[in-house]
Amino acid sequence: MRWKRMAAPLLFLTPAMLGIIVFKMVPILQGVIDSFFQYSFINQKTYFSGFQNYIDALTDPIFLNSIKVTMIFNIIVNPLQVLISFGLGLLLMIRIKGQTTFRTIHLIPITVSFTVACILWGVLMNPEQGLLNSVLNLFGIPNQQFLFDKAQALPSVIGIATWKGVGYWALFFISGLEEIPSQLYEAAAIDGSGPWNTLIHITIPQMKRTVLFVVVSDTISNFLLFVPAYILTNGGPEGSTDFMMFEIFKNAYTYSNVNLASSMIVLLLVIMLAVVGIESMLLGGRDE
Amino acid sequence: MKVNVESLPFDKMFEAIEVRLGAKEDSIDILLVDAPMVANYTAKGYLADLYSYVGEKSKGNITETSLGAGTIDGKLMALPLNSSTVNLYYNKEIFKEKGIEVPPENVDERWTWEKVVDVAKKLTYEKDGRQIYGLCFEQIGRPYQLLPLAQSLGAEEFVNKDGSKTEGYTNSEEMVKACQFYYDTFNTWNISPRISADDAVSYFTGGQVAMFIGGPWQIPSMTEAGMDFGIAPHPYFEGGEVVTPTGSWYVGVSNYSKNKEEAAKFVEFITTNDDACQMNYDIGKNLPCNIHVLEAIDNDSAYESFPDNSMKLAVYESINTAKARPQMAGYAEWQSVMEKTYSDIMNGSNPKEALDLAVAEIDKQLEKYKK
């Protein structure tokens, strides 16, 4: 009897679980194993090297800088993206004329590939003849260096990533908002609750699970950010946009040190798990 | 025999080779190898020894120096597709408009960098709302065109003898001075545009740059743009040595290829066969390594007239002033860090500090090639 009840869910879960095992779990395991070995070009052989790769990674000032850059980036970009996309979600729920047009427009950044978007932003932010500088000039502001200035590069990347991300995350907020039973709002309206009170006491508590999902997914995607460094900044100027993923990629494919890169990947995974764990603890809690 | 060609942008090709040959994939038979990368790919075991496949007669068809640069410890790892040189190109209209004399053609009267900067300052101005720049390197941020700055100031080596240490070499006093010059063109004199190497030639052909340090392979795009340009010899620092860049693409056979013999035959054909080399020259206008094509250039009166006379200059430079990039197993790492460093210097980093950081990073990467 019990087996019969289990059969259907198991059947539905199997394809997804197989995918996760083959494409996620096995490569992660492979990476962990690789991180304890070192390939020698001179002898064309792989040797067991214990924790040496981890020691090398954690004593490498360049990699340590990339951890710092990734952390600073995430501390700023995640709250920013979640707040803006939540606001965007609320705005897109308002029933006004032409709302479908707005909803379509806000989808555009999602449909553009991040690579293409980065190239376009690179053109817009070109210090020599970019459109953004032309606009600034109209207001009497001189040309800015944007991605070529070590103080402006990271904020510029944050801007690009946010532009790209908020529309996508807003989609989840919209579907979350639509799930809130309308009776709650009707009841609140009868009790004389204003829009602000309704937002604080009804909308936000009801959105808890959506918020948790968006925060966690957004964090993961931003920790793995790679494209802007690869396409636009090459990690510079002076390592100011040198994200962990970019540094790991370079170690693997420019410096041909896959084993060291594997240890860095494991470190990234540990940091990410810790951050996501903290987020889940703070936001999740028990269902009230 | 059927050959499938895959083309990739400059930077991406090095990566693709690293990813695919690093995984010992057999989908590539033949690959282009930048001259200083021959040692790197050899150290990593990516290339097959061509010695037994290539005939003695074919080896005799190309210059000894170019054959030597493809040979490592007596093994023939790659053959040269062509060599290269760099000249000073200038936009005649901009010079005329400002009433400034153009740089002389004669190699003995070549301009110094000091003179180039002096003129470039006068040729940096705004015209109809467009910024015109006095000077621009074609390969902004790439060692190929930037090392001769340091070499002209007397830098000899960029890495120690066994290729394991760059500290004291790549951040030598001459190198710091050369990078200070590079820094000044962007940040002090503001005579050069801060752009990427990919955009440089279109700045010149679009009339936004007066003097352009570039290779003859850009002549076809200059002619195509219909611009009025002239060619002069590569500059040097006053009191210093005349040094010009050289070295270009080699062709090698992947060690993991299943068709090594056929691949080697094809490589032999495109790199040493007289007709193939002549055709390669006619299309690409690159300095050949094939002795017979070089002789033809020297004897043919057609090369007296503009712009083909640039080839005469190229031959002169390659014999008298050309210096190769450093030969080292860790060239890939060295190049990657140096490109980043040059880019930081362009964007305003202190040259000495940037170079000190660079050598520390490079030396760490070189450790894996130690025995």
Could you explain the architecture of this structure?
The complex is a heterodimer of chains A (288) and B (371). Chain A is mainly alpha-helical and 288 residues long. Chain A has a single domain, classed as MetI-like (MetI-like fold). In chain A, 74% of the residues lie in helices and 3% in strands. Chain A has helices at residues 2-34, 52-58, 61-93, 99-111, 114-124, 131-138, 153-179, 182-190, 195-206, 208-223, 227-233, 244-253, 258-283; strands spanning 37-40, 45-48. Chain A has a two-stranded antiparallel sheet with strand order 1-2. In chain A, helix 3 (61-93) runs antiparallel to helix 10 (208-223) and helix 12 runs antiparallel to helix 13. Chain B has 371 residues and is of the alpha+beta class. Chain B folds into two domains: 10-83 and 247-315, D-Maltodextrin-Binding Protein, domain 2; 87-245 and 330-369, 3-Layer(aba) Sandwich (D-Maltodextrin-Binding Protein, domain 2). Chain B is built from 16 helices and twelve strands. Chain B has helices at 10-22, 37-44, 56-60, 64-69, 92-97, 113-122, 143-152, 173-187, 197-205, 219-224, 260-272, 274-284, 291-299, 310-320, 331-346, 351-366; strands at 30-34, 71-72, 75-76, 79-80, 87-91, 125-127, 130-137, 209-214, 229-232, 244-245, 249-253, 322-323. A five-stranded mixed beta sheet of chain B has the order 6-7-8-5-9. In chain B, strands 1-11-4 form a three-stranded antiparallel beta sheet, sandwiched between helices. In chain B, a hairpin with a 2-residue loop joins strand 2 and strand 3 (75-76). In chain B, helix 7 (143-152) packs across helix 8 (173-187) and helix 15 (331-346) packs antiparallel against helix 16 (351-366). The model of chain B has no long low-confidence stretch (mean pLDDT 92). The chains are: A mainly alpha (288), B alpha+beta (371).
